[in-house]
């Protein structure tokens, strides 16, 4: 079987690399190989090719009259080739000596109509430590998850693919408008479109042999993060274009995306937890960023290839600014700080879209970032900060980092992993256009690091809690009574995220077993939801009501006597809400004592016996309970979201200007 191998080249700068590619073709163990060289409109390159290979009987050389692009050149090479099979390799690649032999075996033994193999990396300037193997396709190398072994695939890489000559001719060759001069210059993937047409016509794909190897030279510029970011975005864009042209063209990408989210990301995360390393963390972060950017490119492609425009919803007719605020995914009724600030910004005509970014939520957030006409991107710790910064830089938007929780919140992670995340977080904050810090300790550390930012504490809509809407109070009463809460007994309440490491849910539940004279009410959502719900089923004085709209929280607190907050933080949001509602608070000693004194809250260790004893004392001394509630309420009266919102508006004006 005669095999013609087409190599296209066009610049003298690549000539020595071209010679290596051509020589590797001529050094094949298969003895019936034809080298076909197409020079794309560069006479001086053509002259050198003729000098080096013109006298060979197994070489055919042609030159385009002008630069026509890779796909036009490949089609011309196939037209002048004489082989039964036409194969393609790039001028920056080197074929293994048994490459053609393996391809021929696929045609003879598998009756293939097209065959290809594995692309391996040849690192010219060293392998980048951050690049995950799942995204090697960005550099033209076969990636993890491409195929489990030999078998039929939709297509292989354009630098390691071949076709029966008659099949290639019947298909009309490559569509020259894919990345060609007449089409969209940002489109990539001519072999994808061709092989999708082949599958539609013949019902067959490309036979993949992982032992048919071609090494692809990975030059230094291809290992730079900025280049890879750009590449990822436009690859996603191209995939959307392919999908619009041929509906079956993205089946394999869909399958790969599924494995990425359900297999590869969890696998890398598990490995990182078992054996923390800087390399592992960088690869995991890069994996998430590249996934987001491919999705962003795909969604951007919908604006051109679907004929539709995505509009961002606005609360005002003519907003002065539009902001995308990225935050961790914690549930619709958790993380209310952003909502309160957004409400205050709205009074200045600022439209704020608040988007979750954890896990698959990042896709929707990226879509908004790319398609929406935003003036700035805000990113809140942790994932909002980690994803928002590179996304803002890619889109050339101002970035504001907001730190509402201290880094110590994740210090239960393995120490090496915690240290790596801490370093990345400070790197982002140091390079952001502006920063805000909720906690004094974090703000002071930022100043020590030379990072400028504003100290903007948690606050409360005082009137909303101090004088709650009667409808909210009545609605909460009905919900409490429906769950058999005895409102004639004192009520201890917890409102917020149900997490063990931060808020000690199991400790409160254990204390409830000792204080049957108290009703324990939990309102919120989180990882400990099932544990709390199970306790509610087992103990008559424990009640888990679920998660509700924020506007209903003042109604629940109106029926409470004590509020719990066992988060060792300087100013947890819920403490101010408890205070404004006139609810005495039991809190954990530590950072909160820098803001409140013993006349404003009861500070005890989060121990079930201590909690039970404290509740007994407060039940027996209602005057003391009222005194604590009154003092905390006076403190809460002095912190407002209006003041915080004003400063955020100033930040926005500064970074946009």
Give an overview in words.
The protein is α/β, with parallel strands linked by helices. The chain contains 24 helices and 21 strands. Strands 1, 2, 3, 4, 5, 6, 7, 8 and 9 form a 9-stranded mixed sheet that branches. A 6-stranded parallel sheet has the order 11-10-12-13-14-15, with helices on both faces. Helix 19 (529-538) links the parallel strand 17 and strand 18 (542-546). Helix 18 packs across helix 22 and helix 21 crosses helix 23 (622-636). The chain is elongated. Keywords: Transferase. One of its GO terms (molecular function) is transferase activity. This is Glycosyl transferases group 1. It comes from Halorubrum xinjiangense.
Low-confidence stretches: 180-185, 306-316
Largest sheet: 9 strands, mixed
Helical proportion, percent range = 40-55%
The end-to-end span amounts to 67 Å
What is the CATH topology classification name of the largest domain? Spore Coat Polysaccharide Biosynthesis Protein SpsA, Chain A
Q: Let me know the average pLDDT.
A: 88
How would the blueprint of this fold be written?
Blueprint: E1 3-9, H1 15-26, E2 33-39, H2 43-53, E3 59-63, H3 70-80, E4 85-89, E5 93-95, H4 99-110, E6 114-123, E7 151-153, E8 161-164, H5 165-171, H6 190-202, E9 206-218, H7 225-245, H8 251-274, H9 278-305, E10 321-327, H10 337-346, E11 350-356, H11 361-371, E12 376-380, H12 383-395, E13 399-403, H13 415-431, E14 434-437, H14 440-448, E15 454-455, H15 462-466, H16 470-482, E16 491-497, H17 500-503, H18 505-512, E17 519-525, H19 529-538, E18 542-546, H20 553-557, E19 562-565, H21 573-580, E20 584-587, E21 602-603, H22 608-620, H23 622-636, H24 641-656
Parallel strand pairs: 1-2, 1-4, 2-3, 6-9, 10-11, 10-12, 12-13, 13-14, 14-15, 16-17, 16-19, 17-18, 19-20, 20-21
Antiparallel strand pairs: 4-8, 5-9, 6-8, 7-9
Domain Glycosyltransferase 2-like: 4-171
GO molecular function: transferase activity
Protein name: Glycosyl transferases group 1
